[in-house]
Design goal:
By secondary structure, the protein is an alpha/beta fold. The chain contains 12 helices and 6 strands. It has a 6-stranded parallel β-sheet, sandwiched between helices. α1 packs across α2, α2 crosses α3 and α7 crosses α8. The longest helix is centred in the first third of the chain and has 17 residues. The protein is globular, with a radius of gyration of 18 Å.
Length: 258
């Protein structure tokens, strides 16, 4: 089936989670936290995980609780040798060529890291844009407001957008924004998404084999788009007033954690 826009996550979605890339970045995050906050490695690792779970990124917790500037953290964490861990992937290249619609990257990392990853995999040519953590003032996924902003920036409709991610919380935000959803994960999902596949190549095969009624469903979703947009505007007003939907990450609204 066809989509106007595919918003694809980077880490652990475009490449396999067992590649070692994210493990290397985790280690650099822990080292940064330990040094900057003057704590031991165990405490730094606990803070890294706590802030990631609470805010969507460790960075957001460091900004809200400790007043750290984002760019030194981002540069250090992503300063890894991608070429030593990733290689050109012809199967992924062919799969992305088969995926219908314009494709963009949406990552909680930085553009420079995404560019290195896509170049190492040999698939950069498939993506029209990279939207990184800087896109919405360092506010991380999951965030329906950020995603709605991204979709509008790309000139697409939420109902014509497919969000592809390995994190179900991020897909829940995509669903709230009115987009279709695809989970990339080897294990069964805890929720029901529009599509589920172990890898991007497998997802491409499933989309190309999707039944015609999927297109009809997309048209029905478009008819409901006005009510979805109205709901999103209400959520934005709540955020401006200091409130937030229960499912939204505090890192999305940017409210001070105290």
């Amino acid at each position: 089936m066809d989509f106007e826009l595919l918003v694809i996550d980077l880490d652990n979605t475009v490449y396999r989670a067992d590649s070692g890339v994210f493990a290397r970045m985790d280690a650099r995050m822990t080292a940064f936290v330990a040094r900057e906050l003057g704590v031991d490695e165990d405490t730094a690792n606990e803070l890294r995980l706590r802030y990631w779970r609470q805010y969507g990124t460790t960075l957001r917790g460091l900004m809200l609780h400790h007043g750290l500037e984002p760019e030194p953290f981002l540069r250090e964490v992503h300063d890894i040798d991608i070429a030593a861990m990733l290689a050109p992937d012809p199967r992924l290249d062919a799969a992305l060529a088969r995926l219908p619609g314009r494709k963009v990257i949406h990552t909680n990392g930085i553009r420079e890291h995404a560019e290195r990853v896509l170049a190492a995999l040999g698939v950069a040519r498939h993506f029209d844009a990279i939207h990184d953590i800087r896109f919405h003032d360092y506010r991380p996924k999951p965030c329906a407001d950020t995603l709605a902003k991204l979709i509008a920036h790309e000139g697409a409709r939420p109902a014509g957008t497919l969000v592809v991610d390995d994190m179900e919380d991020n897909l829940a935000a995509a669903r709230r924004a009115g987009a279709r959803t695809a989970l990339i994960a080897p294990k069964p999902p805890r929720d029901r998404w529009d599509f589920h596949a172990a890898t991007l190549p497998e997802l491409a095969a499933r989309l190309n084999a999707a039944a015609p009624e999927e297109n009809a469903r997309g048209a029905a979703l478009a008819a409901n788009e006005a009510s979805v947009v109205a709901s999103a505007c209400g959520a934005a007003r709540m955020a401006a007033a200091g409130a937030r939907p229960v499912e939204e990450s505090p890192g999305c609204t940017g409210q001070d954690a105290g």
